[in-house]
Amino acid sequence: MVQVPPLANQFSVVFCPRIFGINLPDIFPWDMAFQKVAGIGSSIAMRKFNEGGENLFVHRLPDRVEYENLVLERGLVLIPSKAIIGLSFSPVTKLFVDAMEKMEFDPCDVLVILHGTEFIPLAAWKFRNAFPVKWKISDFNASDEAIVVDHMELAFQTMWSVRI
Fold first, then answer.
1. Which GO terms describe its molecular function (predicted)?
2. How would you class 106 by CB atoms within 10 Å of its CB: exposed for 0-12, middle for 13-18, buried for 19 or more?
3. Which secondary structure element, helix H or strand E, spans residue 98, and what is its range?
4. Cα separations (Å) of 138 from 69, 76, 111, 119, 132?
5. Beta strand segments in 21-67, E
6. In 16-58, which ranges are E strands?
7. pTM for the whole thing?
8. What pLDDT, on a 0 to 100 scale, did the predictor assign at position 155?
9. Tell me, which fold does domain 11-162 have in CATH?
């Protein structure tokens, strides 16, 4: 039974299968699990047009669609050095490392899926040609026992709702 409105606490994030030439079955499960997703939305930018001789108002015309960055947060993912030969980062973390340390970008599509009870997909949003623009690790504090959080932001070309 679908909850109306649905809860926002069961979701997954799927990065395109072409990241680094990795096929879909090789994508790591921890690269799909995030504790928070934000930035799903858009707005219409308005253009102002002054009409000659009209001083009481300005015409406002729709110009283009604008998007916020897609923001993803998760616990810091560490891969033991001997667990997987030749891989010291998860593929998504490597996407950010390459962008921030080498200015190498590999834009990919990202799918955010909202799940209902029993993990049944209820809604989804696709983000086209997403690429890293900000990466931050939570603060370390000796008096706090908080989990270290990866804060990742992606810019993208366009987004749309996917019919489920």
1. structural molecule activity
2. middle
3. helix 91-102
4. 19, 9, 25, 29, 17
5. 36-38, 42-49, 59-67
6. 36-38, 42-49
7. 0.81
8. 97
9. Pnp Oxidase; Chain A (2.30.110)
